[in-house]
């Protein structure tokens, strides 16, 4: 399932959702627009979906991974260290369902921290 993240209607990043129940549930409610939050080198934003942790749930993520964070009903895009990190790898605040992966270079997102809005569309 191919998607695009659009930041402040200016910059686009290509990604894909995995073939999981959580990812399919999110894909079925696209497009989504939200306010963008930053936690270290992680973007996160609330979406109108409540979904429990599933068999992909983990604290071990890499730059470029996309997760769904149940406590915040939020999507998290990891592109570098977070405040919970002990090295260059991101660490989520708590377990996330792995729902996808960026197809573009995750380091590109470091330039987008000034942006405030995000939209997800399928294509």
Question: Which features would summarize this protein structure in a list?
Answer:
123 residues; mainly beta; nine-stranded antiparallel β-sheet; 1 helix; 9 strands; 6% helix; globular
Short description:
This protein starts with a strand and ends with a strand.
Could you characterize the architecture of this molecule?
The chain is mainly beta. The protein is 6% helix and 37% strand. Strands 3-9-1-2-8-6-7-5-4 form a nine-stranded antiparallel β-sheet, covered by helices on one side. The longest helix is centred in the first third of the chain and has 7 residues, at 21-27. The model has no long low-confidence stretch (mean pLDDT 97).
- Which range best describes the helical content: under 10%, 10-25%, 25-40%, 40-55%, 55-70% or over 70%? under 10%
What is the β-strand count?
9
Discrete helix count: 1
N- and C-termini, Cα separation: 8 Å
Strand fraction = 35-45%
Q: For the largest beta sheet, what order do the strands appear in spatially?
A: 3-9-1-2-8-6-7-5-4
Instruction: Please state the CA-atom Rg, rounded to the nearest Å.
Output: 13 Å
Mean pLDDT: 97
Which structural class do you get from the secondary structure elements?
Answer: mainly beta
The major beta sheet can be summarized as: 9 strands, antiparallel
Large-scale geometry: globular
**Uncertain ranges:** none
- One letter per element, helices H and strands E, the order comes to EEHEEEEEEE
